[in-house]
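Technical annex B. To support the medicinal chemistry partners, we prepared a structural model of the target in complex with SGN, based solely on the information shown next.
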Amino acid sequence: MNRRRFVTTLGAIPAAASAFQGRRPNILLIFSDDHAYQAISAYDGRLNHTPNIDRLAREGVRFDNALVTNSICAPSRAVVLTGKYSHLNGVLDNRQTFDGAQPTFPKILRQAGYQTALFGKWHLKSNPTGFDVWEVLPGQGSYYNPDFLTPEGSKRREGYVTDLITSLTLDWLENGRDRSKPFMVMCQHKAPHRNWMPAPSKLHLYDGVTFPEPPNLFDNYEHRATPARKQSMEIDRHMTLMADLKILPTGAAPPQDADYRRYLGEYGRMNEAQKRVWDAAYRPRNEAFTRANLQGRDLVRYKYQRYLQDYLRCIASVDDSAGRILNWLDATGEAENTLVVYTSDQGFYLGEHGWFDKRWIYEESIRTPMLARFPGRARAGYVCESMVANLDLPETFLDAAGLRVPADMQGHSFLPLLRGETPSGWRQSFYYHYYERGEHDVALHYGVRTDHYTLAHYYSTGEWELFDRMKDPHQMRSVYAEASYADVVKNLKAELTRLQHELRVPDSKPI
Ligand code: SGN
Ligand code: CA
């Protein structure tokens, strides 16, 4: 595909954009951590209501096939900065350090006269580069009274992490920036990352609510290759009672084990007032849990409900954050000249296949929420089915700013898609590659996803899977070995090889 075709310039934008009168647009990215599209009502109204994030879908574009190249935190963030796959930006898994000397979109915008700022989750180990101002969480960060790293050192801030990150963003927008320049700001939430600690004000949201279960909550992992069975990310066997679900024993001292220590790591950061509100919310639930003495599937069902309650409470604060930011844009008149994107570093399992976490090429993991509002340049209420990716964000931002895209970036600007136009030659297949060994025990794999199929190769075990997502949207049965799919397998393998070549992927050796 000739990527140059997709590079638009301000000069090529239709008349509607003349409202900008030559002013370069601001860029505002709200980036959450582990936010499943299943938990945004604009995508799926079954679980929760997110009125503020939904505004972006109503006033802008909702992408229903927004994908990530490597479904885990630090790698996804490195892709969003560089527009390059993990094997080229150097962050293959969460353990590697990002090389901040490489070109990134914030650097290019800054050189072109933008004011750039970053607040919140970062997770790339090296200090941020390319920002006029930054204040980031160390590593995964904490939910309560978190520490922040700044160029001057570390400081602890009293409060709840999502609200603090929002306030830092708004404070910089209001008081910190040079108003003669356009801005690019990244508001990056820790929430709703594990261990799903809600804000004091949300602790009773969803009390008494029973969430619908996914149809495959009790998956037995038959009809697939061995990795689906061998992971450790099940609500049943791997989600812990204390740290993950805040279920402490009542009437007895908690066991002094690793789970309790993890719980204390977060709970121990709270001040006395926060602890009082917290305990008052969880103690009665935990007493009821002790009395119920649940076993087997009933216990899994209960864990699922407790998981969803806390996860969705965290999202309620993220949605408030989006509301505060959108209100600020409205109140200042900046909304008209700002591209706002809401996305997450990857998707997340909310009980599908019995799981939490992400990492797989399977749908709930590879697909991430992506909503974009750009007044005058995006069709309000449009739902885009074309495959876009986190990889496309840097080029989209540079394109919006009217800047040249470096030739070695590997995505495509999705500005034409915002207008409702899918350029001929837009990607029909997408390459995925997961590299992290260890936590959650997901086998290394790469694969290709099209509108119709997902082909995965677990190169550490030598196994393959093929899913016909039109017939099997929940991906419960691999049809890789079925004779009627032989041609599909052959064609997809050829496409996989073509993509690996085009994207300059080195050979993956069986491990
Ligand atoms: C932590 C979590 C994992 C999670 C990774 C990566 N464990 O290690 O469940 O998969 O982060 O998440 S925890 O016990 O510390 O909560 S990522 O989003 O940063 O990639
Ligand atoms: Ca994440």
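Notes passed to the chemistry partners:
The chain has a mean pLDDT of 95.
DSSP finds 13 helices and 16 strands in the chain.
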